[in-house]
Amino acid sequence: MKKIAVIGTGYVGLVTGTCFAETGNDVICVDIDKEKVDLMKNGKVPIYEPHLDVLFERNIKEGRLRFTTDIAEGIKDAEIIFLALPTPPGEDGSADLSYVLGVGADLGKLMTEYKVIVDKSTVPVGTSEKVEAAIKAHATVEFDVVSNPEFLREGFAVDDFLKPDRVVIGTNSARARKIMGELYKPFVRQGNPILFMDEKSAELTKYAANSFLATKITFMNEIANFCEIVGANVDDVRIGIGSDDRIGNRFLFPGIGFGGSCFPKDVQALVKSGKEYNYDFDIINAVLRVNDQQRLRLIDKVLNHFGDVKGKTFGLWGLAFKPDTDDIREAPALYMIEKLLAAGAKIKAYDPEAMANVKKQYDFDIEYVDNQYTAIEGADALLIATEWGAFRNPDFELIKKNLKKPKVFDGRNLFGLEEMEERGFYYESIGRRTIV
Ligand code: NAD
């Protein structure tokens, strides 16, 4: 059993804290957001993440998971302190380290015995040195700073955390290495590795992983765009290349671009890190450029088809940047809404989990409805922006009945071309022929 403090109780912090409690550790989660902490103290999970609620409730009940807004109370007894703080993009695209370094300085003032400070936030290469300096400026005790980037995916966060493909731990301290190895032992029982390396390599591993995945998706989006031009079918091309082990069949589905809280910001931050060292990432710059265009690809198709959309109504399925999350950060749907509204269209939107977040954060002049079929009542077309499970096998007859004309613009390639043809839909998707 280890005593752990997790500072920052968002997607990563709450999952980290809960999963460490689940493996028998004593965990206290610290957050400055009082409303969030009060909610958690009352047994409520403040985010939507599958399977989290069960573990959350069990560990609170068994006394291994607590919450506070008081950092001093939070870290008092902790041997290991995780930083799961935001690192949002600054105005120039570089990662804003003010949260991480600010808390680092606080820790320096508060620590009265040796502690391992673990950076779980995604940060540019070289940040652990900055964190160390921020702590050292005030510290009177020994400490180690470890880089332990997190690879969980929202929507699968608990499963990913409990059974990671690998755990990356960046440290040159033997003392910290031993403590971290013991902590993660229960998570690697199936033989998945704990990879020890230096701090800089660990930090860069995270940016390299996200940038590689963003590149893979973007590459496939470009192939899909070209498929449309030459009359090829991207489904076949995807399977054709994905069957090659060197390529692999995952992360090859084309769509309306990557979004979310991680890929856009991490890819941009890597470019920015490169610039600081006078290195220009050609590939990654191109990825960002292509993705900007891809996010609006479906709306371009809509505008192309309808010409003028002024006064036309569109039913929009999906707001979250991907299914099984309420996270809307950098969601393609938001860019689509902006462009459609600017063109004078009306939108009726439905998302199973993300509507509250959009309502709270954006004052879009759109209608939110509580059912996917209500969204398309009297609409000129259905637009699909997120591949939620409930959208995959819908009541096609009801879709036809509710729409003015059976027109579907699918940014996630949810349906087969033949079935849409048989059902009599006008159907546009990504990288495949249009069914007219
Ligand atoms: P988040 O915004 O969901 O959570 C951050 C939390 O930190 C918030 O609850 C906020 O109130 C709290 N906070 C801010 N300042 C604080 C302070 N001074 N003291 C205590 N709490 C404070 O962010 P997230 O999605 O959990 O991401 C955290 C980090 O993990 C980021 O660097 C991100 O890039 C990285 N990451 C995220 C994911 C993901 O899928 N979300 C995956 C891997 C890595």
Brief write-up:
This protein is of the alpha/beta class and about 425 residues long.
List keywords for this structure.
six-stranded parallel beta sheet, UDP-Glc/GDP-Man_DH_C, 436 residues, NAD, Rossmann fold, NAD binding, UDP-glucose 6-dehydrogenase activity, alpha/beta, N-(1-d-carboxylethyl)-l-norvaline Dehydrogenase, domain 2, EC 1.1.1.22, globular, 18 helices
Shape descriptor: globular
Number of helices: 18
CATH architecture of the largest domain: 3-Layer(aba) Sandwich
Helix fraction, binned, reads 40-55%
Ligand types: nicotinamide-adenine-dinucleotide
Tell me the domain tally: 3
Instruction: Identify the CATH homologous superfamily of the largest domain.
Output: NAD(P)-binding Rossmann-like Domain
Instruction: Show unreliable segments.
Output: none
Family: Belongs to the UDP-glucose/GDP-mannose dehydrogenase family.
Protein name: UDP-glucose 6-dehydrogenase
Pfam families: UDPG_MGDP_dh (PF00984), UDPG_MGDP_dh_C (PF03720), UDPG_MGDP_dh_N (PF03721)
Pathway: Nucleotide-sugar biosynthesis; UDP-alpha-D-glucuronate biosynthesis; UDP-alpha-D-glucuronate from UDP-alpha-D-glucose: step 1/1
